[in-house]
From TrEMBL:
Domain of life of the organism encoding this protein: Bacteria
Entry's transmembrane regions: 12-31
Domain TNase-like residue range list: 37-155
SMART domains reported for this sequence: SNc (SM00318)
Phylogenetic placement of the source organism: Bacteria, Candidatus Amesiibacteriota
InterPro entries linked: SNase_OB-fold_sf, Staphylococal_nuclease_OB-fold
Record protein name field: TNase-like domain-containing protein
Keyword Ribonucleoprotein listed: no
Naturally occurring in which organism (per UniProt): Candidatus Amesbacteria bacterium RIFOXYD1_FULL_47_9
Keyword line: Membrane, Transmembrane, Transmembrane helix
Length: 226
């Protein structure tokens, strides 16, 4: 059987057509969102501390911040804060990108107020982006909240000791570094990193009364433990 000869020029031409199609699609997306940037939208529902719905059923999530998931420490306060700022009001949505689920990721203004900044200042949401103008100011506010122990950074949601139930003193830590993000590790009293490990309940970290409980919840013992 004759060996098939690959026409590389033809392959490259086809690849160029595909790339052009993606480029055009991206330009169309940006053109569609130019009107989003220049107009205002009525907020009809607040889903949680960093996501809301407009009158056209669009779901908007803040680019610059991260609120506790519903049910976690501080989630109710974060949602109430956002409702106070924008629910039933018209806001200007400055779109950054649309995520895979269809939500618009954006920075938001209400009148002369930058809503991202107001939310960060409340202490019930955390700074979580470097993609928008003014991010240095937002990070500075969040850093100050941590120093002053405001909102989610207070002893209500960030703890080194379990004052509410001292007998349950096993620390369930969720790794936040990029290399092992999401890994669940538990620390026992006496482990090398126990004292320096804090429990951020707003992120889903928790206290356990026994190793059995920690393992059942998906945590593994820290390698720093004897």
């Amino acid at each position: 059987m004759a060996k098939k000869v690959i026409n590389y020029r033809q392959v490259l031409n086809r690849l160029g057509v595909v790339l052009l199609a993606f480029s055009l699609a991206g330009n169309i997306f940006l053109l569609k969102h130019q009107s989003t940037v220049s107009s205002t939208h009525l907020v009809t529902e607040v889903l949680d501390g960093d996501t809301f719905v407009t009158e056209d059923k669009s779901i908007i999530r803040f680019d610059s911040l991260d609120a506790p998931e519903l049910g976690r420490c501080g989630s109710l306060q974060a949602k109430q804060e956002l409702e106070k700022l924008i629910l039933g009001k018209r806001v200007k949505i400055e779109a950054v990108v649309r995520d895979p689920t269809g939500r618009v990721i954006a920075t938001v203004r209400q009148g002369s107020s930058w809503v991202d900044e107001k939310l960060i200042a409340s202490g019930w949401v955390k700074y979580a982006s470097t993609t928008i103008e003014g991010h240095g100011k937002l990070k500075s506010i969040d850093d100050q909240n941590e120093i002053l122990k405001i909102g989610i950074h207070s002893n209500l949601c960030t703890q080194y000791e379990n004052a509410y139930n001292p007998k349950c003193n096993i620390k369930g830590n969720i790794v936040d570094e990029w290399t092992n993000r999401g890994e669940k590790i538990y620390h026992l009293p006496g482990c090398a990193q126990y004292k320096s490990t804090r429990i951020e309940k707003y992120r889903g970290e928790e206290w356990f009364c026994s190793e059995k409980e920690a393992v059942k919840a998906g945590y593994t013992k820290s390698q720093a433990c004897p």
